[in-house]
Write a structure and sequence with these properties.
Blueprint: E1 4-9, H1 23-33, E2 37-43, E3 51-54, E4 57-62, H2 79-85, H3 87-111, E5 115-119, H4 121-135, E6 139-143, H5 147-153, H6 157-166, E7 169-172, H7 175-182, E8 191-192, H8 209-214, E9 221-226, H9 235-248, E10 252-257, H10 263-272, E11 279-281, H11 287-296, E12 299-302, H12 318-325, E13 329-333, H13 338-341, E14 349-351, H14 356-367, H15 370-387, H16 390-406
Parallel strand pairs: 1-2, 1-5, 2-4, 5-6, 6-7, 7-8, 9-10, 9-12, 10-11, 12-13, 13-14
Antiparallel strand pairs: 3-4
Length: 407
């Protein structure tokens, strides 16, 4: 049964050659590969056309501020972070919601979708719920991050409840996110479906030899952490863990990939601790290039925390899935959706957030036990293939679509 699927999102791949490929783009492409017709409605970004075609998928971007070069709410660090940084972004939220709701209604009238799939329960879910009252389409809302927490913090929990109750089905990328939606007063079932990763690009057959040679890492133990340098990603605690690791395994290198507002501070801290020879800041890397870095490492680490604004990993972290699909053992912090995928002593090692001591203990444990590292990596790979590969994820959504369309 081929369907017409309208995906509504705050941000979307800007061009086919973007350095980063986001999960919305991968989801849309997987639906297209399965034979469905897809239209994406996303927020506008300054300099981009209102209508575009990316790999045979049409994209309609709605403008929400005039002049459009001052649009500040969507993209970059995400809505929550953008509103914290910019008063203009905060003022744009009502305009965004009105413009977005009208864009969904226009697209629904023209495209005649079999189902509308909203990414994020707020504000997109609310926009789609309002549009549904006028256009009468089947609606699936996908709660992705901590937007429910933030909406409740902003005294907008009733909006989450209205959006969820208006939808025909609600899914969440983690149990933590599902609980956040329920805390706003939604009492129906929420199906947990992870966001996916590309298991064709990230797999155990990849080689990291070129990375090892490029950075002179022969005979080194290699640790890898990928993420934007902000408070939530928690790289500070991983750097703090390194002195203890180096006491036990002096020939260890930590590779940090990413950019962000805390990069200079973290570099200065590493230098102050005399760790500059053991920690390599690599900047951003193209998505395809990351496959070689995963393959080169011995252990992958995601040390995310709940930051001072209450923001945590809404899902499991795309990088966690990519590392597991590559067949690497993962150490994860016990925050957000990470424990749904990194199950302690089963599919990886789980540590308390903000604990440099537990991070160093876990790293030392894995570097010193090849058999344990291999066992956890194998179990993690199996779980990621089952729950975090796009083919299976989109198949789960297809079943939901068929069920609510029939109903």
């Amino acid at each position: 049964m081929n369907m017409k699927i309208l995906i509504v999102t705050s941000s979307y791949q800007k061009t086919e050659t973007d350095k980063f490929t986001d999960f919305m783009y991968n989801m849309a492409q997987e639906f297209r590969r399965k034979g469905h017709e897809v239209l994406v409605v996303a927020a506008h970004y300054p300099g981009l056309p209102k209508r575009d075609m990316l790999k045979e998928i049409p994209v309609e971007r709605f403008k929400y501020f005039i002049p459009s070069r001052f649009e500040k709410l969507a993209y970059d660090s995400g809505m929550a972070a953008n509103m914290r940084k910019s008063h203009l972004a905060k003022l744009q939220l009502p305009l965004y919601m009105v413009s977005g709701t009208l864009a969904v209604m226009r697209a629904a009238g023209k495209f005649r979708p079999d189902v509308v799939h909203s990414l994020w329960v707020f504000p997109q879910g609310l926009m789609c719920a309002i549009a549904k009252k006028f256009c009468k389409f089947p609606l699936v809302i996908n709660a992705i991050g901590t937007e429910a927490y933030l909406a409740k913090k902003m005294k907008m929990g009733s909006m989450i409840r209205f959006a969820a109750n208006t939808a025909d089905a609600v899914t969440a990328t983690s149990s933590a996110t599902a609980n956040a939606v329920k805390s706003c007063g939604y009492n129906k079932d929420i199906q947990i479906i992870f966001n996916g990763a590309d298991d064709a690009l990230f797999n155990p057959n990849n080689s990291g030899e070129t990375i090892i040679k490029e950075h002179s890492l022969q005979n080194k133990k290699i640790l890898l952490c990928i993420g934007r340098f902000n408070e939530m990603k928690g790289q500070r605690y991983l750097i703090e863990a390194m002195p203890e690791v180096l006491k036990k395994f002096p020939e260890t290198s930590l590779l940090l990939i990413g950019e962000g507002p805390l990069k200079e501070e973290l570099q200065s801290y590493a230098k102050a601790q005399n760790l500059q020879s053991s920690i390599i800041f690599l900047g951003n890397k193209a998505h395809e290039e990351l496959a070689k870095y995963y393959a080169a490492c011995d252990v992958f680490i995601i040390p995310s925390i709940v930051d001072s604004h209450g923001v945590a990993e809404g899902g499991q972290g795309l990088v966690t899935k990519e590392a597991m699909l590559t067949g690497k053992c993962v150490i994860g912090a016990d925050t957000g959706g990470i424990p749904d995928l990194v199950i302690n002593n089963e599919t990886g090692l789980l540590v308390e957030q903000k604990s440099a001591g537990q991070l160093s203990d876990a790293i030392i444990k894995l570097l010193g036990d090849d058999a344990l590292r291999a066992r956890l990596a194998q179990a993690g790979h199996k779980m990621a293939k089952e729950k975090a590969a796009w083919g299976g994820i989109c198949a789960e959504y297809e079943e939901i679509y068929k069920r609510i369309i029939k109903r």
